[in-house]
C-alpha cells in the first residue's frame, strides 16, 4: 500500500489489524462480508468447506512457499521432543484443528498425546500484552503461563533470539505432518463470483509488493513500519532479521502466490486419515466429502 501498488490498480484498500476488541477471526470477517480478503491458514479453507457456512472460503494465493510453523518450548524447560509434551501445557489459538494436530505430532513422536490444552484470549488477539509484544512466547512461555505453543519461526523465534531467549523448535514436517500453505490470502466464493477482476487486481498489486520486498528488503521494512505504525513493528533490525529468514520463501520459480494441488491433497488426506476433521457433533467427516480443487485457486494470480 505504501508504494502505491493498490492505487495503480485502481483499488482503495483499508488494512485492518486484529486487536483486543475484535470478536471475529479474519476468516469469519470474510465469510460475513465484513472484509473482502483475509490472511489465515489453509486450515480455514478446509474448516469452512466442512461447516454449514453459506459462504465458502477459497485460498487465492500463498504468502509463503515454505513453512515456518513450529511448536516451540523454552530451551530451559528441558523439553527436547514433542513426546515430552505429555502432561505439559499448550497455549492454544483455538483453531478448529489445531489441538488435534499438536496431539497427533506428540503421538507421531511415540507419545500419548496427553497434552493439557488451554486457550489464549480470543485466539491471541484478546490480550493487549500479547499484541504489544507480538509474541505468545513473551506473554505466556517466558512468564510461566504455559509450556508450549505454535509459532511462526520467522517472527517469534527471531524475536526470542534477539532477546537472548533460547527455544527448542519442533517443525511439523519433521514429525510426519505434511502441513499445508500458511499464511494464505482467503476470499469468499461470493466475491470470486461477483468481482473476479477485483480479485485479480488485488493479487496483481500484492505480486508487485512481494517482488519489491524480495528486491528491496530494507526499504520494504521501513515502509511497513511507517504504514502499520504498530508497537510490534517498531524494531527495524528485528524486522530486517525476519526478512532474512523469509528471503527465499516468497517466490517459486520467480513467481509469487503459487500453490500446488499435490500439497493441498496431502494435507487434506492427513487431516482426514487422522480423523481430525469433525463436525459440530464430533462425527468424523469423510475424505470423500472434501473437494480439494474447491479449497484453493491460482487462476486469479497474474
Tell me what you see in this structure.
This protein is of the alpha+beta class. The chain has two domains: 5-66 and 180-294, D-Maltodextrin-Binding Protein, domain 2 (3-Layer(aba) Sandwich); 69-175, D-Maltodextrin-Binding Protein, domain 2 (3-Layer(aba) Sandwich). 37% of the residues lie in helices and 14% in strands. It is built from twelve helices and ten strands. The protein has helices at 5-8, 26-31, 42-49, 98-108, 128-133, 136-141, 153-162, 189-194, 196-215, 217-228, 236-246, 261-273; strands at residues 37-40, 57-62, 69-74, 89-92, 116-119, 148-152, 167-171, 184-188, 251-252, 255-256. The strands form three sheets. A five-stranded mixed β-sheet has the order 5-4-6-3-7, with helices on both faces. The chain has a three-stranded antiparallel β-sheet with strand order 1-8-2. Helix 7 crosses helix 11 (236-246). The two termini are 18 Å apart. The mean pLDDT is 92. Keywords: Iron, Metal-binding, Pyridoxal phosphate, Thiamine biosynthesis, Transferase. Residues 1-220 form the SsuA/THI5-like domain. InterPro entries: NMT1/THI5, SsuA/THI5. Pathway: Cofactor biosynthesis; thiamine diphosphate biosynthesis. This is Thiamine pyrimidine synthase.
CATH C-level class of the largest domain: Alpha Beta
What is the level-2 CATH architecture name of the largest domain? Answer: 3-Layer(aba) Sandwich
Instruction: Note the overall shape.
Output: globular
Low-confidence stretches: none
What is the rounded Rg?
19 Å
What's the number of helices?
12
Total strands: the figure is 10
CATH superfamily of the largest domain: Periplasmic binding protein-like II
Terminal CA distance reads: 18 Å
Question: How much helix is in the residues?
Answer: 25-40%
Main beta-sheet annotation: 5 strands, mixed
Organism: Amorphochlora amoebiformis
Domain SsuA/THI5-like: 1-220
Keywords: Iron, Metal-binding, Pyridoxal phosphate, Thiamine biosynthesis, Transferase
InterPro entries: NMT1/THI5, SsuA/THI5
